[in-house]
Amino acid sequence: MRRKLLGVTVTLLLFASSAAALHRKDRSPSQTSTRTLVERLGYPRDAKLLIVHADDLGVAHSVNSAAIKALETGLVTSGSIMVPCPWLPEIAAYARSHPEADLGLHLTLTSEWSTYRWGPVLSKDRAPSLLDSSGYLYSSENEAAAHMDLKEVEAEIRAQIARARALGIQPTHLDSHMGTLYQSKALFEILVRVARENKLPFRISQDWFSRAQFMPAVLGPDEVVLDRTISIEPNVAPEDWSKFYTDEIKSLQPGVTDMIVHLAFADEETKGITFGHPEWGAEWRQRDFNFVTSDAFRKLLKENNVKLITWREIGKLIGKTSH
Amino acid sequence: MRRKLLGVTVTLLLFASSAAALHRKDRSPSQTSTRTLVERLGYPRDAKLLIVHADDLGVAHSVNSAAIKALETGLVTSGSIMVPCPWLPEIAAYARSHPEADLGLHLTLTSEWSTYRWGPVLSKDRAPSLLDSSGYLYSSENEAAAHMDLKEVEAEIRAQIARARALGIQPTHLDSHMGTLYQSKALFEILVRVARENKLPFRISQDWFSRAQFMPAVLGPDEVVLDRTISIEPNVAPEDWSKFYTDEIKSLQPGVTDMIVHLAFADEETKGITFGHPEWGAEWRQRDFNFVTSDAFRKLLKENNVKLITWREIGKLIGKTSH
A42: Cβ–Cβ under 8 A, 6 or more apart, which residues? Predict the structure, then answer.
């Protein structure tokens, strides 16, 4: 996930404490249970649970390498894979040889870089509305959301799930690259419907509801909603990277938080892909990698009693109502 | 181009001197003119003309970077682009900003690596026979040649040319990745037909005819046939790389020779793509880059009176019969 939705998310984070009470009122009927998500997961009500999630696996060799290295430190617990991207076979091989890895699908309806692009998994004839004039997926989530036919979107994300499974990936969760599937109620309904049918949890967080008010009504009693999301944004200066994450962990509230990071090495490949785009660029991803694999992060989690969890644990709640 | 055809080529090269006379007899009627190709290009009959050609542009950022750097030394004169590959937009941008660059299309019907793969330009529904069971192009030229429907092949290579033109590439020539379009008479006829219609020269060399005897009959009076090909092969030890090319240049005969090289840096991206495959792998491509951009190569060309030319010059002969 990148850009727009994260823009929404960070704004929410700024108002997180005041918004918390509001969100409780906004929750769908299924979320009004007195049992919190933390309790449903078997932890005490005051537990601080954290998913450290690497987005964009499959997009590049550098991203795959950095994510695998980070997963193997144990400090990054989860990741999600972009099925239409050319490095899918490399991360699929990792998924097959590491069936315990917590890997989901980063459902992809955009191709956002200028030097390096990809198309859909579906035959283009079956999803013409997903393509821009150059024959690739749209560059932005706004353009994509404005032009895509909903039936073609649904067919494409089903095709992405099918291709992942055909390559031996057993996804633990779903989310949406650049938040495209969170851009409208109609798109969100597709994500929810496909996730339900596949009995998979998907990225959704209470702190999104005040800016995407259509969301609660789409959710049913079986959907699991995380409590909040942490995602760094371009307004953080590079030298403040560690401080941002440190402050977030130190002030972490009880509940389940999804910390979304974008990992890669600042090598020639990543520089080539993100050319002219410092936001979510090579140095950004290297800084994320450096922080989440650091001893400082490990120590911080311990000192603040933060327990790392995965989407696999969340997935076990699917099919069990929250009451 | 890689592998099989080059296997043919090097075998031919071993017999190049004895084969030269034979090939002259084998030439198609159009090639029986007393004017040699060198003379038709406006050079004295004893001129030694060399195209130094980088294959596989568009496949990777490292390949694009190395090829662009090598083209800008002037020692590599030409290159060809793989249209279905994800780094096409990067090399297309270079082509648009360098309209003088001698860039052709490396028509691509295979996707040969294991970690990193691509599909066709055509909608998959229109070219199902081009895809293997995982939905990408076949891994080898043999599998591709055995399974591809000829109409779908022709439609796909037309689509590759159309996409290249849509992105502002004005190709100067055509050739075939891994030699797939040279694997049978029927495939070769498609290459020749499409090249003719586009008024483009294509890679074809007299020294291939003894191993691909169907070729001369397919050629018409307007086709331009180069005299020979140089392409290094796996039987050359890494420490003998310079010696191989040096010996080839020192013994170069009059005529037009196409020296095919595979350029990239031996960086993480190239190592990731060519993982487990030292042949045409990262170190191979770095060695090719090192040699063709070296002062030693420049000096060697000068000392041996080798004149570098491009496919653009060859293309000017198209439409003019050889008589």
Answer: none
